[in-house]
Amino acid sequence: MKPTHIEHLGIAVKSLETAIPYYENVLGLTCYAVEEVPEQKVKTAFFKVGQTKLELLESTDPEGPVGKFIENKGEGVHHVAFAVEGLQETLDFVAEKGIRLIDKQPRKGAEGLNIAFLHPKSTFGVLTELCENPNK
Ligand code: ZN
To answer: Any idea which architecture 5-132 has in CATH?
Structure first.
């Protein structure tokens, strides 16, 4: 595998409404998209920092993955997403290396990307997302 860059960092927040002003008024970034991803039970807000993005995640359901994360660990960095080319081949390679996959096959994520997650128990505690831009 050869990631081209860090596509984004996913950051769990309790409320987009209260977190977005920090990123805009203190860090000076611009929120360019807010998108709900019902399959993940989250609402997301995106910021660009150079080639990398920040993805703020607000849970829409306390039983969803981000809701549970916040309950257990509080707000904070939730996952790291690497951009790769050839996502299915990459997943096959990772599985061959004995890493536990949350998604054996790519699925649709925010921003039209194909995504898949690796299990944090196999990745030294870091929930790891791999994403591929299908329009590239
Ligand atoms: Zn993500």
So the answer is: Roll (3.10)
